[in-house]
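From the shared-data thread, chain only:
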Amino acid sequence: MFNWLRRKPARAIPENGRYKHGNDHLIELRQVVKTYQGEAGIFYALKGIDLLVDPGEFVAVVGKSGSGKSTLINMLTGIDRPTSGEVFVGDTAVHTLNEGQIAVWRGKNIGVVFQFFQLLPTLTVVENVMLPMDFCDMYPLNEREERAMDLLAQVEMTDHAYKLPTAISGGQQQRVAIARALANDPPILVADEPTGNLDSTTAASIFNLFSQLVENDKTILMVTHDPDLASHVTRTITLADGEIVDEQLAQAVPHKEMSG
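Structure, as tokens:
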């Protein structure tokens, strides 16, 4: 079993059952609306979304292209801002933060895994994993490389630590991206189509990594088009035209029984 946590995430579960701003859940989106001004007028990407996620959940967000999945994820991570509504993550009212505050908060509290990896091409694999620690000034300077190597070991990538991202495969780059997302031990991991560019075997392997993270107290929201992967999470939320149209518990299939 991987030892993903070096410490318990601060305030992942509130001691008195309620967080600083009165939210009872780790993640709360309240009546979130996102609009964009286009040539044809105002486009509603999200239409009054309400979403509650508790610590330790593994939630899949599914829906057709253009349904609002990535926009929803961007509200949660602070990459984009709601036109109206409120976004709470733990003790933080994300919608009230300015750009500088959001960057630091996200670096410490949410690990983001992108579809296209977004590793910096001029940095080695281990330097990419160290980057969030450097940006947020987390962990003593002389411990960061050791921690990065430990994370790479847990995603089976230590042999490639001093290579550039262009020298490794897509699946290997995604493993590195997961290690980077875990660099500051955030309580929440958000993944936007993390297996979209991977073959089925590699995708299953990445999914098993996520399952092990959930078993070790991480909370994960994953946008995916893969119905097989979505059927093995704790809960599936379906979006259509910017609204949640279906929410259901997935079939109870133990993660450990999935083949990788």
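The longest helix spans residues 200-215.
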